[in-house]
Amino acid sequence: MQNPQGLRELTVRSVILGGVITLLFTAANVYLGLKVGLTFATSIPAAVISMALLRLLGNSNILENNIVQTIASAAGTLSAIIFVLPGLVMVGWWQGFPYWVTAAVCALGGILGVMFSVPLRRALVTGSDLPYPEGVAAGEVLKVGFGSSAGSAENAKGLRMIVVGSLVAAGYQLLTYLKVAAEALAVPFRVGAGATAASTSLAMALIGVGHLVGVSVGVAMFVGMLIAWAGLVPLLTWGEVGDNVAGVVNATFRSEVRFIGAGVIAVAALWSLFRIIGPIIKGIRAALAASQARQAGTELPLTERDIPIGIVGGTIVALLLPIAGLLWYFSSGTVLAAGIGPTIIGSLVYVVVIGAIIACVCGYMAGLIGASNSPVSGVGILAVLGASVLLVLVYGHGGDPEQTKALVAYALFTTGIVFSIATISNDNLQDLKTGQLVGATPWRQQLALIYGVIFGSLVIPPVLDLLNKAFGFAGAPGAGDNALAAPQAALISSLAKGVLGGDIQWSLIGWGAVLGVALIGVDEALRAGRKLRLPPLCVGMGIYLPMALTLLIPIGALLGWLYDRWADRQASPEFAKRMGVLAATGLIVGESLLGVAFAGVVALTGSDAPLAVVGPDFEHPAKWIGVLLFAGGIGLLYRAARRTSAG
Predict the structure, then answer these.
(1) What average pLDDT does the structure give for the chain?
(2) How far apart are CA 396 and CA 415, in angstroms?
(3) I need a surface site. Which of 245, 448, 495, 514 has the fewest CB within 10 A?
C-alpha cells in the first residue's frame, strides 16, 4: 500500500520482516518476564534492525520501516501475557500450555486492545502533551536514519552496539550455565528480633532494564525495595525468627509483604485512571466527529485517518462470539460446566467494560512514563481481583475445594483475556506516536498492530511451553530449584486463590492502599515542585518484586543517568544517548535469547545443569569470579558505547 506521496507503507516485505524480528524479541521478552518480572520495549531496536536490513534490499523508506517496528513492538509487548497465564500451571490446572487455546487468548484479547485504543489516539496522542518517551525516541531514530547518509552510518553503529551488548550478556550468562560464575548472591541476616535479607541476581539484563527505565523509576523502585526489606520484612518477622532465618524471611515476603505491594499498585492504578477520564471522553467524541465528517464527504488529512469507528465497534462485537466459545471450551468438563451460560455472559460484559477501562489506563501510563516503565502487572492485579470478587458473588467462596480450584482457574483465564487487552494498549499508542512524528497513516499502522498481535500469538505458546518443561515455575507442583520466578503470575494467582478460597488477608492489601495514598501525595508534591518524580506504581513494584530482581535495576538506572550526563557533553548528544540505549537493549536480548536456547538444552537432556563443568564445591569461588566478571563486562560495554559515540 502507498500513501499519496508515493511512499510504500504497508508492504509484504515489511510484514514478513516484522514477523521475523517478532520471533526474536517475543522469545526474549517471555524469558525475561518469567525470570525477573519485567519486559522491555522493542520499538527502537526493531527500528534499527529494520533500517539496516531494508537498506540491503533497497528502495526502502521511513514509513515502511515504521510498519516493521510497529509489528515487532506489538508482538514483543504482547508477551507480557506471561504475567497471568503461568498462574494456571501454578495452581495445578494446566500442566502445560495448550497451543491453540493459549494463542487464542493472546490473539482475541490483543485485537480487542487494538480496537479499544483507536479512539484513544486522538485523546492521548494528538490531543495531549504526554511525552511518549519510547515513541518519540523511535520516531527520532527513523528520521535520523533516513535524513542523511550519516544516518545510515549511525544505524550500522547502532546495530553493532546491539550485537556487542548481546555478546557481553550472553557470554556472562554462559559462564553461569557452566557454573564457573555465580548467577545470584543472597545473605539473610537478623535485625534485632526480626530478620531480613540482601540479595541480587547477577543478570546483565537487569542493568539494561535499569538504563532503559530511567532514574525516576529506578529511584522509585529502590524506595519500594527499602520499604519492603528494610522496613516491612524486619517488622513482620519481629519475634518470629527461629533457626531458619532464610525460610522465615522468604515466607514473610511471599505471604505478607507482596500483598501490601499489591495494595499500593491497585490504588496507584486507580489514581492513574482518575487523572485521564477527561481526555478519554474528549478523544471518543473526536473519533465520532471524524467518522461523521467522513460520512458527510469531508476529506480528512492522511495522518488523521483511523480505522472507522463503525468498524471498530463492529469488530469488538464480533470478537465476543469466539471469546464466549473460548470460555465455554475452558470450562467444559469441569464442575462449572452446568449452568455456565450466565457466567459466560457476565464474563463478556466484564471483558468489554474492564477491558475498555484498562486500555485507557495502560495507554495513559505508557504515554507518561513509557511502555517499559508502565507497571501493567498492577492492572492485572486489579483485573483478577475484580473477576474473583464477581465470581464470589455468584458462587460464594471457601466451599468445595474442587469448585474453588475451577473458579480460580476461570478467574485467571478471564483475566488473561483482559490482560492481553492491557498489554497491547500499553504499546499501541507509543507506536502511533511514532507514526504521527514520521507522517504515517494511522489506519495502516493499526492494521500492522493487528498483524503484530497475530505473530506474537503464534510465537508465545511454544516458548512458554518450552520454558515450563525445562525449568517450571516457582510455586507450581513439582517445580525445582531452578524454577523461573514468574513473580507477577505468582502474585495474581495467589490473589485469586485468596479471594475465592475466602482466606485472603484484606488487611494487608488495605495497609498497602493506605501507603499508596501517601505515595500519591508525595508524587503529586514532587510534580508541583517540578522535582524528581516518585511514581507510586513503581514504588509498589519495588515492594512486591523480590530484591534479587530489583536491586540491579536502580543501579542500571544510575549507570544510565551517568552515561547520559556524559553524552550531553558530546558533539552529538542524542546519537550518544541512543548508543547507550541500544547497548542496554543488547544486554536484554543476548541474555534472554541464550536463556531460551538453554531451556531447549535442559528440556532435551532432562538435567537442570547440563552444561556444568564444575561441582558444588566451586560455589564460593564462583561468587567472586561472577562479581568481578559482571562488573568488568558492564564497564567494558559502556566503554564501547562511549567509543562508538565519539568515533
Answers:
(1) 82
(2) 19
(3) 514
Would you list the DSSP string of 581-609? HHHHHHHHHHHHHHHHHHHHHHHHH--S-
Q: Rg (Cα) of the chain, in Å, rounded?
A: 24
pLDDT in tens, 320-350: 999 999 999 998 888 888 778 889 999 999 9
d(CA 382, CA 256): 18
Question: According to the model, what pLDDT value does residue 2 have?
Answer: 47
Q: Is the Cβ–Cβ distance between 19 and 11 less than 8 Å? A: no
What does the pLDDT read at residue 318?
94
The answer to whether 109 and 419 have CB atoms below 8 angstroms apart is yes
Look at residue 423 in the predicted model and tell me its pLDDT.
82
Q: Express each pLDDT in 488-525 by its tens digit.
A: 788 888 888 888 887 777 888 899 999 999 999 988 88
Q: Measuring CA to CA, which residue among 274, 272, 273, 491 is closest to residue 381? A: 491
pLDDT > 90? residue 317: yes
Maximum CA pair distance of the chain? 78
Q: Write the DSSP symbol of residue 612.
A: -
What residues does 196 pair with on adjacent strands? Answer: 189
Round to whole Å and give the CA distance between 155 and 405: 52
Enumerate the β-bridge partners of residue 190: 195
pLDDT in tens, 563-611: 999 999 888 888 888 888 888 878 877 887 787 778 777 767 777 778 8
DSSP state of 230: I
Confidence at residue 273, expressed as pLDDT on a 0 to 100 scale: 67
- Nearest alpha-carbon partner for 307 in 164, 574, 122: 122
The CA angle 539-540-545, to the nearest 5 degrees, is: 105
The answer on pLDDT for 403 being more than 70 is yes
Length of the chain, in residues:
647
Sign, CA dihedral 139-210-529-567, equals negative
Find, among 476, 459, 593, the residue nearest to 71 by Cα.
459
- The CA-to-CA distance between both ends of the chain, in Å, stands at 39
pLDDT at 616 over 70: yes
What pLDDT is stored for residue 78 in this prediction?
A: 82
* Domain boundary assignment for the chain: 12-139+188-571
**3-state DSSP percent of the chain in helix, strand and coil, to 5:** 75, 5, 20
CA–CA separation, 412 and 433 (whole Å): 32
Identify the residue whose cell numbers are 500492522: 448
Residue 185, strand partner residues:
200
Q: Distance between alpha carbon 307 and the CA centroid of its chain, in Å?
A: 26
Is residue 321 exposed (0-12), middle (13-18) or buried (19+ Cβ within 10 Å)? exposed
Rounded to 5°, angle at Cα 464 from 382 and 199: 70
In degrees to the nearest 10, what's the CA dihedral of 443, 447, 448, 452? 140
Sign of CA dihedral 564, 430, 86, 99: negative
- Per DSSP, the residues of 89-135 read HHTTS-SS--HHHHHHHHHHHHHHHHHHHTTHHIIIIIT-----HHH
How many Cα atoms within 13 Å fall on the side-chain side of residue 582?
31
H/E run at residue 418: helix 401-438
Q: What is the pLDDT of residue 25?
A: 78
Over residues 71-81, the pLDDT tens digits come to 888 877 788 78
The amino acid at 117: S
Q: Cβ(18)–Cβ(459) under 8 Å?
A: no
What integer pLDDT is reported at residue 325 of this predicted model? 94
- CA 316, CA 407: separation in Å to the nearest integer? 26
